């Protein structure tokens, strides 16, 4: 039984997971296998995504709130947020990290891998740390 604010996850085939939530609340997705994870949320609330496998992680959020993304596997991480709030992204694997934010708020990005790209058009704080080549 699902409580208020929690959404069931559906698998769209081998290596692919898709989840959508239109209501307020928390969305939590974890994937340990290689493949692609896609998550979209239009409502206010908290979005948390963790992936331990190699592959691609894409996350989009249009609502106000907090977005946290962690990835330990090699691959590509892309994150876009148009709403006000806090964006935190950490990646320990080699690969490319791209982050764009148009809303007011704080952007924090840490990467131990190779490539880091960050763009922000809104007022607020931008902090970037990189321990790897790039």
TrEMBL record:
Residues 1-21 are annotated as: Disordered. This is Uncharacterized protein. It comes from Synaphobranchus kaupii.
């Amino acid at each position: 039984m699902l409580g208020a604010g929690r959404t069931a996850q559906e698998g769209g085939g081998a290596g692919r997971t898709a989840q959508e939530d239109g209501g307020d609340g928390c969305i939590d997705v974890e994937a340990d296998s290689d493949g692609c994870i896609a998550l979209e949320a239009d409502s206010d609330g908290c979005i948390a995504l963790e992936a331990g496998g190699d592959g691609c992680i894409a996350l989009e959020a249009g609502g106000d709130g907090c977005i946290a993304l962690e990835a330990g596997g090699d691959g590509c991480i892309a994150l876009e947020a148009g709403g006000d709030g806090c964006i935190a992204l950490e990646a320990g694997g080699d690969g490319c990290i791209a982050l764009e934010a148009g809303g007011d708020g704080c952007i924090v990005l840490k990467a131990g891998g190779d490539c880091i790209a960050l763009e922000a058009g809104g007022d607020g704080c931008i902090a970037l740390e990189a321990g790897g080549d790039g």
